[in-house]
Amino acid sequence: MELAERSGEAPEAWCIEQTKDRPLGTVLPYRAAILHYLVHVLGWSAEDAKLALPTTHGRPTSQRYALDKDQLARFEALLVALRPSATRTILRLLPRTGLRISEACALRVSDVGYNGRPELRIGDAKGGKERVVPLSKSAQALLDEWITRDRRRRCAELDWLFLGYGNNPVDPCLLRKATGVLRKRHPWLGARFSPHVLRHSWATSALRSGADLRHIQDFLGHASIATTAIYLHVEPGRLVAVAEAAEDWLR
Questions:
Q1: Which residues of the chain have a pLDDT value below 70?
Q2: pLDDT at 90
Q3: Most buried by CB count within 10 Å: which residue of 55, 61, 76, 216?
Q4: Same domain, yes or no, for 24 and 122?
Q5: Could you give the angle at which helices 86-97 and 195-208 cross, rounded to 10 degrees?
Q6: Residue 60 lies in a domain
Q7: Domain-embedded: residue 245
Q8: Does residue 211 form part of some domain?
Q9: For position 245, what pLDDT does the model report?
């Protein structure tokens, strides 16, 4: 680990350096890795290690960043102009389904249209639970187009929807690198733009359209509704509208 080679540097200072200007989804993994090193390699107590490390901007109590409607439309137009690929298809799929990047990359052809309906079967999700995610018409059309176009996946014993190198599913790291390139080329996407932001954007769009928080929780596969609430970006104006609607109902 790099920290072992730089033992003269305070771990908290190294952690801050590593998390500078990184997208939201990568900060906590860095902190977790350093915490593991301090406890299991250097022999620190867990309490001392947690106190030494700074609180990151990705802490669970913070509200997550999401693209608004106009940004999502611009993002879609940006991707449509690119050459068809597994990466492009997955990035277009995420804001339509709210999938985790790991879930999208691990999809199998047999997971599409589960039980004959326009749905995705999501296996091996967090917590070991399986869930079914209904597909919108645009998401279904996107997947139908990909399955028709991508002839490479039609190997005798392979069922991966998005085939990568060595007959394995596409690596999520490729998606993270792709969003990093897009983030630099198109600053309007925001400094924190990442594949996970597209998941947040789906959740926020669903809330803005009037979806129930419990339904959003089921879509995202969260065990706790409190986790779902963190994913949502709500403008103050919307909260005011909710307060006024509640007051009108009481009258």
A1: 1-31, 51-64, 124-128, 150-157, 231-251
A2: 96
A3: 216
A4: no
A5: 30
A6: no
A7: no
A8: yes
A9: 55
